[in-house]
Amino acid sequence: MASDCELIVLIADSAYTSIYCKDSKVLRELYDNMESLKVDKLAYITDENDFRHTVKVR
Is 37 helix (H, G, I), strand (E, B) or coil? Predict the structure, then answer.
């Protein structure tokens, strides 16, 4: 959370996507959009269910 980065989109195998966003309003809009597209297995990533402890970009 201390980073200047506002949004991270991780895509694996063109099917698995994770979005990390600091702005709760933007995150809600993204969630609502994905929900309207009937995305499978849509869920919020929280401290309790996130297996990543850090995200590093090079």
Answer: coil
